[in-house]
Amino acid sequence: MDCIAMYIDGQWVESDSGNVTDIVNPANGRVIAQATRGTAADVDNAVAAAKRAFAPGSAWRTLTADDRAALMVKAADLIEARAEKLAVAETNSMGRVYRETRYDDVYAASGAFRYYASLVHELQGKASAENGDMMTVTVREPLGVCAVIAPWNYSMGTTAAGMAPALAAGNPVVVKPSSLAPVATAMMFEALAEAGFPAGSVNLVLGSGGEVGSALAAHPDVAKITFTGGTETGRDIIGRSATSVKRYSMELGGKSPFIMFDDADLDVAVDRLMFGIFLSQGQVCIAGSRLLVQQGVAERVLDMLKERVPKIRIGMPLDPDTEFGPMVSKRHMERVLDYIRLGVEEGARILIGGHRIAEGAFGEGYFVEPTVLVDCTQDMRVVQEEIFGPVLTVQTFADEEEAIRLANGTRYGLAGGVFTSDLGRALRVCSGVNTGIMWANAYLEDTAGMAVSPHRQSGMSVDGGLDGLLEYTVLKQINLKMTPAKSGWFAGME
Ligand code: NAD
User: Is Secreted among this UniProt entry's keywords (predicted)?
Assistant: First the structure.
């Protein structure tokens, strides 16, 4: 059976621990590969290699911006050349359906390298000569060793979104994928190795969050942590790493409101709602998991969901026609089912779904029905907490003020959507809802190159665009005196 190795200092290596993690296909429960299970010692080696790569005069530090861009474009080409292999690997190990991994994830990853390669010349500072004989300039310098700790969902995209701006700015990187999702990430590293990144500039460590992730996060030689994952984990990482004062990009959890007014085009709104909550089986940070629907149209919208949700094509994720696959793991499936049970105990009613799918071949995998819970109230845990599965909670509201209040009534601030034919109201709601992304009359659609920042406990970062690149740099002020001159401050120095 394949054993996935780590990539440290330009070499593929297995951990001295001798331990491995089984990689399970969640569509059928079978072990499809194994990954070496790293330790804190492996993290030390990877960070030391990255630190050497950052030293003045190293092969990485002496690359010009054009050289870095060329490497990144080559990496993007090589990722795309592996598109089919990457998509199949990700689908088999994560259960994410092929039509998503093949046509979205791979290009999200290659696109991040390509996009940030195009910005390498934008790392400019400012200059001022207002003090006569002195020229003051600010320059943008790389930070140093950047750690990228990635989640299992959308693993290629989130990993590349952290790596690409870090590398474009000249930083070496150490990546730690989720122990559930190392397969496609390791293949991406094959592309980076083939592209010719100098030893130590790109490193991959594998293992558990508790051992390898926390050792990386707390490492004193790591200058920045780019973490994408749950809010509790993010909080833990900030706490553990506080002693060495690092920079953070934290992309954390969400519980995004999807607001539907009675003047909305309901046909489009329900289509987008289903896309927003059932894509990737709801395992999407910006999933529109809370429907807030205006009282007058609530019954009609629920009838539309009852008619349309059962038509979702649930199937084996590798089948190109499958629209909806399994949960990522048995443990995650059980967590999602526990939340559905909890919702019912709290007083919610199951309108659609609500169960594990166990008939025939589905019984070997970890499938949960697309689920809609009605009669939900704001205080319920199913409304407040991120379930990260195909579970939509439904609440009604009377007017715009109440819709905004309910939308803002959780600790999260990642994303949200509003559907209305009144553009003035759309803008008021987009401004009033305290999230990093708002969509009006759309959901899960964006424009490449535009930056985004999570609000409240959904994190702290600037992701995307030039603003996202600058997050991987530190400003330096340089003062150049044209003619050496004494200060004249202390007497007797003339
Ligand atoms: P997670 O927090 O359990 O794990 C994320 C990563 O952190 C993994 O690599 C894990 O091994 C590592 N980790 C775990 N404990 C650690 C510790 N103590 N120290 C250092 N690293 C540790 O999240 P997950 O279950 O992999 O992913 C799902 C979560 O990610 C959801 O909450 C989802 O909303 C969030 N997410 C957010 C975004 C975003 O852009 N905001 C994108 C994707 C996923």
Answer: no
